[in-house]
Task: structure prediction
Amino acid sequence: MEKDKLPNQITIADTSCLIILTKIDELDILKSVFSKIYITDKIAEEFKEELPNWIEVVNVKFEDYKTIAEIIDEGEATAIAMSLKMDNSLLILDDIRARKYALSLGINIIGTLGVIVKAQKEGKINSALSLIEKIQETNFRVSDKIFEQIKKALHQK
Result:
């Protein structure tokens, strides 16, 4: 069984994922791929929009993330702290510094673009590339290198 398909996996999202998918009107991709998403109260504050009922907000105590918040953004710090407290978690994280930090702690991560690729591979969407092109029209930048890696992962040239 694939690691990201284990039963009872907890999927935690950071703010950037919610913002990006909302900007392209595709937030429901998260639900189709993961069923339920968890976010922290800080991430809900940063997001500033009404959340669908399949996103559950969990309060994270300051003492659980204060050391991490000295290194990275507070929302990302709370998401990492929450991941550390939960077995079998997958953290959706886009910021490169936060990703490196999470990986150094042994946390399983995926980025928003990885979620979109996963959605296509699972047959939940028709074209990951068309959604990534929509994302490129926002203020979220996808490097040519990452775009080429995604095309390779999708076996599209």
